[in-house]
């Protein structure tokens, strides 16, 4: 892909001074661009490999962090949605998100990661380098609905707030959005991924540069990488929840009116802010 295919927006915004729940109630430069491997998740801050012994088809009640950060990970649902266990990409387990429905109530479900509000937030990048990555396999492309459009993979912070970190498939095309005290940096792949194929999507900030990398884990295609010179500044969330698979509110509930539900399978999530 060429540089003109990237969309970069820098907006000066100034400095900004396991049970299920239903309803609305290391520096990246020291690691490969595709992120740590599953066997190295203990070395990162947040590492979800879903390697516990499970029964495929059973509901996911939550999971555990194989990384160093002390976090609480639960499941939130809405509209009859649920997360279920399914075989992973290379053995082990993965999580299956709700399937797309063309009409009626939107079924939604997400993993929600919460940090201890009484201690420093271990998942705040601040002004430092960091890396976020996810392995995924998307369902066959759908037309989308206003209430279910965006396919969020990993998100912390929402659009319009002082800080955001987001990996998504926007109409099937991968993108990474970072926002902080200096503005926004958005890196996009203009082309959609192939449904029912495993990929690893990584976004990292190293100094004043943001990089996005897409690896076809099923083989047959060379990794693709895009880089943008742009610094979003300090990214701090003040213990806002991090979600995997759908958009949530500041209270950690499924977002009303716009779930941005990802439809497919997720096998691995990494966030390294050291």
Tell me the number of helical segments per DSSP (H or I, 4 or more residues long).
Answer: 0
Q: CATH class, please?
A: Mainly Beta
Strand-residue fraction?
Answer: 35-45%
Q: How far apart, in Å, are the first and last alpha carbons?
A: 30 Å
**Can you tell me the CATH topology?**
Jelly Rolls
Rg over C-alpha atoms, rounded to the nearest angstrom = 17 Å
Major beta sheet, strand line-up: 1-3-6-15-8-9-10-11
Low-confidence sequence ranges: 1-38
What sort of overall outline do the alpha carbons produce when their principal axes are compared? globular
Please tell me the total number of domains: 1
Mean pLDDT: 84
Broad structural category:
mainly beta
The H/E string reads EEEEEEEEEEEEEEEE
Number of strands: 16
What tags apply to this protein structure?
mainly beta; Jelly Rolls; about 270 residues; disordered N terminus; eight-stranded mixed sheet; eight-stranded antiparallel sheet
In short:
This protein has strands at residues 20-22, 46-48, 71-78, 84-87, 93-96, 108-115, 130-138, 152-156, 164-170, 173-180, 183-188, 198-206, 209-216, 224-229, 242-244, 264-272. With 274 residues, the chain is an all-beta fold.
Report on the architecture of this protein:
The chain has a single domain (3-13, 23-272), classed as Sandwich (Jelly Rolls), CATH 2.60.120. The chain is 0% helix and 36% strand. It has no helices and 16 strands. It has strands at 20-22, 46-48, 71-78, 84-87, 93-96, 108-115, 130-138, 152-156, 164-170, 173-180, 183-188, 198-206, 209-216, 224-229, 242-244, 264-272. The relative contact order is 0.25. Mean pLDDT is 84; it is low at 1-38. This is LamG domain-containing protein. InterPro entries: ConA-like_dom_sf. Keywords: Signal.
């Amino acid at each position: 892909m060429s540089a003109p295919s990237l969309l970069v927006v820098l907006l000066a915004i100034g400095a900004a001074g396991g049970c299920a729940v239903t309803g609305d109630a290391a520096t990246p430069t020291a690691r490969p661009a595709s992120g740590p491997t599953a066997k190295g998740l203990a070395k990162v801050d947040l590492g979800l490999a879903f390697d516990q012994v499970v029964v495929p088809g059973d509901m996911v009640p939550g999971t555990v962090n194989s990384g160093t950060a002390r976090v609480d990970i639960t499941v939130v649902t809405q509209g009859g949605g649920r997360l279920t266990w399914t075989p992973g990409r290379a053995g082990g387990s993965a999580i299956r998100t709700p399937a797309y429905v063309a009409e009626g109530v939107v079924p939604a479900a997400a993993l929600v990661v919460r940090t201890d509000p009484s201690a420093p937030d271990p998942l705040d990048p601040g002004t430092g380098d960091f890396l976020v990555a996810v392995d995924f396999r998307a369902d066959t492309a759908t037309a989308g609905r206003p209430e279910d459009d965006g396919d969020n993979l990993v998100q912390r912070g929402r659009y319009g707030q002082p800080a955001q970190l987001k990996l998504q498939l926007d109409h099937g095309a991968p993108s990474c959005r970072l926002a902080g005290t200096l503005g926004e940096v958005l890196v996009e792949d203009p082309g959609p991924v192939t449904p029912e194929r495993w990929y690893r999507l990584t976004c990292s900030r190293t100094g004043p540069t943001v990089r996005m990398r897409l690896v076809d884990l099923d083989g047959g295609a060379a990794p693709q990488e895009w880089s943008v010179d742009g610094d979003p500044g300090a990214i701090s969330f003040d213990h806002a929840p991090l979600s995997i698979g759908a958009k949530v509110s500041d209270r950690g509930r499924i977002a009303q009116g716009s779930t941005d539900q990802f439809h497919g399978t997720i096998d691995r999530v990494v966030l390294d802010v050291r």
